Amino acid sequence: MQRRNFLKTTSLAAGGVLAAPSLSGMAPVLAKKRLAMVGTGGRGTGFWGKTVLDNYGDLIEFVGLCDINPGRVEAAKKHMGATCPTFTDFEKMMKAQKPEVLIVTTMDSTHHEFIIKGLEMGADVISEKPMTTDEVKCQAILEAERRTGRKVTIGFNYRYGPHMTKIKELLMKDRVGKLVSVDFNWYLNVYHGSDYFRRWHGIKAKSGSLWVHKATHHFDLLNWWINSEPVAVTAMGSLDHYGSNNSFRGIKCRTCEHKDKCKFYYDVTKDKYYTALYTDNEGHDGYFRDGCVWRSEIDIYDKMSAQIQYANGVVVNYSLTTYSPYEGWRIAFNGVNGRLDSWQDIPYQRGVFESVDQANRHAQEMTQNKNEVPTEYEEIIVMDNFAKQPESIKVPKFKGGHGGGDKRMHDMIFRDPNMADPFGLKAGTRDGAMSCLIGIAARKSIELNRKVLITELTDLKPLALRGKMS
Predict the structure, then answer these.
(1) CATH says 159-242+299-404+429-456 is which class?
(2) 214, 426, 428, 443: which sits with the fewest CB atoms below 10 Å from its CB?
(3) By C-alpha distance, which of 208, 215, 223, 121 is closest to 171?
(4) For helices 111-120 and 90-97, angle between their N-to-C axes, nearest 10 degrees
(5) Regarding the domain delimited by 3-13+29-154, which CATH topology (the fold level of the hierarchy) does it fall under?
(6) SUPFAM superfamilies recorded for this chain (predicted)?
C-alpha cells in the first residue's frame, strides 16, 4: 500500500464522549477514554498496547489500530487482547472511530505525519520518543499544536524512575551549588546495541540516527535535570564497527551463509512475539527484523561524542557507545560547592564484579510491573568541597521497565493525569523538541564540521531557566 493512500489530507474534529446514563440511585458511570494507535510494531503493541490495556482497561478502550502492514496489525490486536477494528488507512480509522487520544508509534521519520494529522482530526496525541527526526518536521509539529489547540505528550519514561527523580530532587535543592558542568556516558552492550543496526534504525533517513532515536532519551534527562535548555552543540561521530566494517555480510540472519562464524547472528524465530509480528508478515511489506548488522546501507554512527552548551552556562560532555561488553551509564554533576556522581549497571562499581546476563539484560529490564526489591538499591554519591567523606544516598531499586519509570508514567497519563507533579515529570512538545534538537544539531555538526546553534533549527528560543516546577 502506498503512503499517499495510507495518510490522506483532511481535517475533522472528533466529538466528545458522554457519560453513560445513571441508574436510579446510582452515580453515573463515566465513559472510557477512547484510544487509537498507529504503528503496531513491538514497542507500540507491547508497551503502549497490551500493557496499557491490561493495566488501565477500566479507564480506557482501544477503538482502532492502524498499520500499513495488514498482517502485523491483526497480530497486534491478538497479542493485545483488543476487540477493536483494525485499519491500514489512517484517515479512515480517524473518521470512523473518532478517538479522543491517538498514540503514535510508527517509524521515527513518520511521527510528524500522524502527530499533525491526529491533531487536525480532533485528537490529543501521545508520541513515542523521539518526537521527530529533523528540524523541519519539528517546526511543523510545534505549529500544528499551536494551530489546533490540542495537546501532544511525549513518552519520556526515564524521568519517572525513582533513581532519576531522586537526582532531580537533589539538584532542585542545590545540593552541590550552582551547576557548572556535567559528564554523561552511556554504554549499549553488544547485544542491545547491535539490535539497532539490524532494523530500520540503522538508516539515517528513517531514525535520524542514534543521535535522535536513542540519545533523545538521554538529552531529555539532561534538560530536565539541569532545568535549562541547550543553545549550541558541537559533535563528533563515525561508523567504525557496524555496517561495511566487516569482511563478510549478508541480508538477514536466517538466510546468511556466515551464520556459523558471526558473533552477531540472531535467530528471530526463537522469539514468538517478534515472529508473530514481523516474520510471519514479511510478505506484506518486505520488512524483516533480523537484518545483517554488516549491511552496506547502514549509514548511522556507532561512535558518538558531543559537547552541549546550555543557556544557564552549564556545559555537558556526552558520549554514546554501541558495542560495549556491558550496558549501563554513569553521570557526574560538577557544582561550585561539590560534585554528585551516580550510575546504573556498571558491573564493577561497588567493588565486586556483579554477574549479569548481558545477552538478555535489556529484555529483562523492560519487563513490566515488577515490584521493588528492598535488598537492592541504586547509589548517588555527593561530596562537598573540602569534605573528608562523601555522602552515599541509596535509592530503592525497582525492577520494572526503565527503573520503574514505565509504570509511573502510565499511571500519570492514564489513571491520574491531574496528580501532583512537583518534579515536572510530564513532557510536552517543547520537551520533545529540545531533546531531539540536540541530536539533530549533533548530526548536523558532524556533517557541517562546525558548531550548530539551536536557534538555527526552529523558532524556539532556549530558556536559561525552564520555569518553577509546579
Answers:
(1) alpha beta
(2) 428
(3) 223
(4) 30
(5) Rossmann fold (3.40.50)
(6) Glyceraldehyde-3-phosphate dehydrogenase-like, C-terminal domain, NAD(P)-binding Rossmann-fold domains
CA dihedral 171→174→177→183, nearest 10 degrees, is: 0
Looking at residue 119, what is its pLDDT? 98
Which pLDDT score is estimated for 404? 84
CA distances from residue 319 to 6, 56, 72, 187, 219 in whole angstroms, order as listed: 38, 37, 36, 8, 11
Among 49, 4, 62, which residue's Cα sits nearest to residue 277? Answer: 49
* Burial (CB count within 10 angstroms: exposed 0-12, middle 13-18, buried 19+), residue 21: exposed
Q: Using CA atoms, how far apart are residues 107 and 93, in angstroms rounded to an integer? A: 19
Grid cell 497490551 — which residue? 50
Class of residue 82 by CB neighbours under 10 A (exposed 0-12, middle 13-18, buried 19+): buried
Q: How far, in Å, CA of 304 to CA of 196, rounded?
A: 15
- For the chain, which residues make up each domain, given as ranges? 3-13+29-154, 159-242+299-404+429-456
Q: What is the pLDDT of residue 22?
A: 43
Measure Cα distances from 53 to 46, 242, 250, 420 in Å.
10, 37, 39, 24
Residues composing the chain: 470
Q: What SS3 class is residue 37?
A: strand
What pLDDT, on a 0 to 100 scale, did the predictor assign at position 263? 97
- State the pLDDT at residue 321: 97
| Half-sphere exposure for 30 (CA within 13 Å, toward CB) | 7
Q: pLDDT at residue 12 above 70?
A: no
CA torsion angle 383 386 387 393 (round to 10)? -10
61 CB-contact burial (10 Å; exposed 0-12 / middle 13-18 / buried 19+): middle
Q: How confident is the model at residue 14 (pLDDT cuts 50, 70, 90)?
A: very low
User: 188: number of CA atoms within 13 Å, CB side?
Assistant: 20
Average pLDDT, stretch 283-295? 97
Predicted TM-score of the model (pTM)? 0.91
Cell of 416: 491520574
